[in-house]
Specification:
A: 8 helices, 73% helix, B: TATA-Binding Protein, Tick-borne Encephalitis virus Glycoprotein, domain 1, 4 domains, five-stranded antiparallel beta sheet, 9 helices, 20 strands
Chain lengths: 278, 454
């Protein structure tokens, strides 16, 4: 099977899982939740296979490069990271309703990659020919995935929180306890934050090796630091009176919005050194 | 003097010890950093005036928005966050040190009341038996407990991850270390550039913003510069320079190839491949055939120069490309009549030797060789602070993993005889991520209860 067929299967699986997670919220049938989770696993397997196949396809063309070289490849890797993170959280917490708020990030990413982006395998420009590329991209995206899951949990938290006194009704009845959502939010960020730190550090190390400056206030670098500042504020908010709960959830959502801007907005709107926007 | 009135120093100290200050400063840093990504930094005055107009320009200039990351207010924010984390660390560290090294083994009523997680269990079992079961379960589910007997009560204390309390101080320290590294680099390092023509050498480089060049103390020669392309495309594969270092009359590094991701370092100074360009005019070897006489002459010419031809005319080469359409290297040239009139320009292809004969002029031309000398543009950098920065980064990663992924969890249990059975007091806390601990504590309390009932 070719990588593009596998990517199609991935997208379809994420779509099906997303719809089923939404159906789970409405039907409240554990069976639907289980099927949704199994399909998410299948999609994750297809996504993994697709990335691996694409790697081999690039090798067959004579390009010795990891499949992380352009926007298309980074998006499908982002979707993969989100699923990895989500499925690990699912194993630990078994809160199926979270899927309805996390899967859309992966699904819409895949749709955009497949319909809007150039999926040709092209050789790397000289500036990207370095092993640092792999370490840098993997650490950054695993961090971003953590923030995506945290953002999903925060949105749910804001929907549930404040209604703790009364018995939740309708769809909210299936939502996890606000304590659990808060915990998922925090856990995802405390894993994501060191990964982002590592991503910034590997980026700095690479920049220093290739250009002789570990930090040049390029828009991408600056935005990654903005993301870092926001999550640093979030982590301190956790143990500051008056900043726990809703404000922390808003910080988490703002952090993910900044993450997305750092990842995509900088390339689409601003100019700088990270040139894979094409 | 009223002792309750805080002193000026006390007020300042409390201000810098506040966590709210941390959050506000971090959010301010995040928000203000956006400015420098929207307004391009360190451009010329003219560019800014064209873009923003006089009024906005003056405002931005006053606010130092054009080099905002070096502005007094941005550095001020960084100073505030540094003082904030130093003050917080100094204030909290001694207590944390004591908590870790001298744990509280016996919890009294007041301590239990201060804990966020607590509970009470009753059991018909005698205190000894209850203690045995509790110790077992705690050991299995959490950690081995220390047992202290005091005032007829038995106290259990168990803890996990005490060392993680230091993670936050390592992380805070790491930020200061990174700043220190950046300051060292700013004071004792430099950033410069130099262009070296192929076949020549230099011993000076140009530092940004300085009029005089900086002497390297050794010299650097460029033997060759080349660009290679991916087969059949115009996508560059590699920019490459071959460099030699001559120090004290001796060639200490020979034929070192540098490419974009692989620089050359010598005596703490690093040279990075950064740009290239043509150096002077290209040299061409051209064969001229005079149609009437069949005479053939080979001429060596420079691009742009007028070269005399037999019979009084002249020619000049005005352009070169290494790929014309799909026909390979080509030059553009024209012939001048003896009285100096320019003829129409035409193309001569290197790979098709007889091609120009078909044009049917007085002369026909063949391109034998084209040589363009190039210069390599190198970025030159010395940064003695960079290792300090890496040390800071390492501390930051280790520290933040310790701080955020682990927490110091403590559980106290007091067993007391009550009638024929026992009454058991439970309490616990975690220094971080309390919600998760609360879930764990509820779970554990339930388990302990079940164990006592069994």
């Amino acid at each position: 099977m070719t990588s593009s067929q596998l990517f199609n299967i991935t997208t379809i699986a994420y779509f099906a899982a997303m719809i089923l997670f939404l159906a789970y919220l409405v039907t409240r049938s554990p069976k639907v939740g289980l099927i949704a989770t199994l399909i998410a696993w299948a999609g994750f397997a297809a996504n993994s296979g697709a990335i691996l196949t694409r790697w081999l396809e690039a090798r067959a063309l004579g390009f010795d490069q990891a499949p992380l070289s352009n926007l298309y490849e980074s998006i499908v890797f982002f979707a993969w990271s989100i699923l990895l993170f989500y499925l690990l959280i699912d194993l630990r917490y078994r809160q199926r309703s979270l899927g309805a708020f996390v899967l859309p990030f992966a699904f819409f990413g895949m749709v955009w990659a497949q319909f809007g982006l150039n999926d040709a395998i092209e050789p790397l420009v000289p500036a990207l020919q370095s092993n640092w590329l792999t370490y840098h991209v993997i650490t950054c995206f695993l961090g971003y995935a953590g923030f995506a899951v945290a953002c999903g949990a925060s949105i749910m938290y804001l929907l549930v929180a404040g209604k703790d006194g009364q018995k939740p009704s309708g769809i909210l009845a299936l939502f996890p306890d606000s304590r659990i959502l808060d915990d998922i939010n925090y856990k995802a960020i405390m894993i994501g934050f060191p990964l982002l730190t590592l991503g910034i550090v590997t980026g700095a190390a690479w920049a220093n090796y290739a250009w002789g400056t570990y930090w040049s206030w390029d828009p991408k670098e600056t935005w990654s630091l903005i993301v870092w500042f926001i999550y640093a504020a979030f982590l301190h908010a956790r143990f500051t009176r008056g900043w726990v709960g809703r404000r922390a959830a808003w910080l988490s959502i703002a952090g993910f919005a900044a993450t997305i801007f750092c990842y995509l907005g900088v390339n689409l709107v601003l100019s700088g050194l990270h040139s894979y926007g094409g | 003097m009223n002792s309750k009135q805080p002193t000026f120093f006390q007020v300042i100290w409390d201000f810098f010890c506040s966590l709210k200050l941390t959050i506000i400063t971090l959010i301010l840093l995040a928000l203000t950093s956006i400015i420098g990504t929207v307004i391009q930094q360190n451009r010329s005055q003219q560019e800014y005036l064209e873009l923003y107009g006089k009024k906005l320009y003056d405002l931005f200039e006053t606010l130092q928005f054009f080099s905002m990351y070096q502005s007094w207010w941005f550095l001020g924010l960084l100073t505030v966050i540094s003082l904030n984390l130093i003050a917080c660390s100094i204030k909290r560290f001694p207590r944390v040190w004591k908590t870790v090294t001298v744990p509280l083994l016996v919890a009294d009523e007041g301590h239990y009341k201060s804990l966020t997680n607590g509970g009470e269990l009753r059991s018909p079992l005698a205190p000894r038996e209850a203690l045995r079961r509790l110790t077992d379960t705690l050991g299995r589910r959490f950690a081995t407990a220390k047992i202290t007997e005091q005032d007829g009560k038995i106290h259990l204390y168990a803890e996990k991850g005490a060392w993680s309390r230091f993670g936050v101080y390592v992380t805070h320290l790491s930020i200061l270390v990174v700043f220190a590294g950046a300051i060292i680099g700013n004071i004792w390092g430099f950033k410069a550039y130099v262009n070296i023509e192929e076949g020549t050498s230099t011993d000076k480089v140009w530092v940004q913003g300085m009029r005089e060049p900086l002497l390297l103390g050794f010299s650097l020669r460029c033997d060759d510069f080349a660009v290679t392309y991916y087969d059949g495309t115009n996508r560059p594969r590699e920019f490459m320079s071959i460099l030699d270092v001559v120090d004290g009359g001796r060639e200490v590094i020979s034929d070192r190839k540098i490419v974009v991701n692989d620089p050359l370092s010598y005596k703490g100074i690093t040279f990075y491949q950064s740009s290239y360009g043509p150096a002077g005019n290209a040299t061409l070897k051209i064969r001229v055939k005079v149609r009437d006489t069949g005479e053939i002459i080979d001429i060596s010419a420079r691009e742009g120069e007028h070269v005399p031809l037999p019979g009084g005319g002249s020619f000049a080469v005005t352009g070169y490309t290494n790929s014309y359409e799909r026909f390979g290297p080509a030059i553009q040239m024209h012939v001048n009549t003896p009285d100096g009139q320019h003829g129409n320009p035409f193309i001569v292809l290197q790979n098709f030797a007889g091609f120009d004969e078909k044009r049917g002029g007085t002369y026909s031309f063949t391109l034998l060789d084209y040589a363009q000398k190039e210069y390599t543009g190198l970025q030159v950098k010395k940064d003695p602070g960079v290792w300090v920065v890496w040390l800071g980064c390492l501390l930051m990663i280790v520290g933040s993993i310790a701080a955020f992924s682990f927490s110091h969890r403590r559980i106290w249990v007091t067993v007391e005889e009550r009638g024929s059975g026992s009454i058991i007091r439970l309490g616990g806390n975690a220094h971080r991520n309390q919600p998760a601990f609360a879930l764990f504590f509820d779970d554990l309390s339930r388990d302990l209860g079940t164990e006592l009932d069994a």
